[in-house]
Amino acid sequence: MRSFSDVYGRSPEVRSQAPGRVNLLGEHTDYNDGFVLPTTIPQLTRIELAKSRDGRFKFYSANLDESVVYAEGEEVPEGFARYVFGCIEVLKQRGHRITPVEIHIRSDVPMGGGLSSSAALEVAVLRALREAFAIQLDDVELAKLAQQAEIEYAGVRCGILDQMATSLGDSKHMLFLDTRTLERKLLPLPSGTELVVIDSGIARTLATSGYNERRAQCEEAARLLGVKALRDVTDPMRADKLPPPLDRRARHVITENARVLRAAQGVSAKEFGELMNASHASLRDDYEVSVEGLDRLVELLQKQPDVLGARLTGAGFGGACVALVKEGHGASVKQSVLTQYAELGFKGEALV
What we know:
single chain
C-alpha cells in the first residue's frame, strides 16, 4: 500500500482514525426515531491530511489505489470521494473556511460488510478536518455532520446510528442510544460472553439496495397510523391495520424497539441471545432484508452449542452476521462455522 509520503511527497500534518461498528440489536430503527444498541469493532479507518500547496483537493484511497483531484467548483467523481467531499461541504455550510487539503485514506473496516465503513470514513475525515482547521465541534455534532454528509452527498437516507456509534462508542461497552433525543449511556456486554463477527462474503451497496425503499415504507406506515414516527407505536397489533407490506415493515420496527429496551434493562446472556435470534427472524420475515447466504450463516451460528444468539448486522441485503458466544469459545465457533459455510458454497471471513 502506498503511504502518504509515496503519494504526496511529504509527511502529513494531521492524523485521525475512527472504528467500524457492529449493531447488536436495533436494526432499521434509527431512522424511525427508535432505539439502538451498537458497539465498536477493532477495525479502523485511518486518515492522514495536509493542507494543499497548489490549491487543489486531493484524495487517495490506499485500499482502492485510486486518486481524485479537483479544484473548487469542479464536479467530484462518484465513489469514495463523495463521502470525503460531503464532509468538507457540510463544514462549509456551517460557515467554516476549509481550504484545499491532501488526504490519504487507509481502512481495514470491510466495505459492503454492514460494519459502517462509510461512517468510519466520515467520522475520521471530520476528526482530521476539526484538528487541521481548529474547529470547535463536539463528538455529537460531528456525528450529526457525518450523517448529513452521507444523506446529502452519498445519497443514502441513513439514520444516526452508525455515526453516533463510531463517534462515541467503544469496544468494551454497548452504546444504548435513543435516536430521537440522542440520550445515551454505555452499558456492559452480557456477562461471560464475547462477540463473533463473520462477513458473509456477500457485499451490498445501500444506495442501490432496498434501504431507501424501506425507509419510505416506514414513513408511509407512520403517516397511516397517525404518528410522527414508528417509534411512537408500542403495540405490534396496530401494524395489522396496515396494507402489506407496510404491516410487516411496521411490525419489525415496533418489535425491534421493544427488544432493544428489554436488553437495555440488563437481561441474562441467555435472554440477550434469544432477543438476537428473534431480531434476525423479524429482519428476515417482516423487514425482508436478509438474503440466502446471510440466513445460512446465521443458522449455522445458532446451531453451535456455545452460541447464545446470532443475527445479521447492518442494513442487510448482504454484509456481516454477529453472534453472542460463551466466553472463551469464539475461536472454535468461527472455525467450525466457516468450514460448514464453505461446504455450502459460500466464502466467509471472520472479522472479530
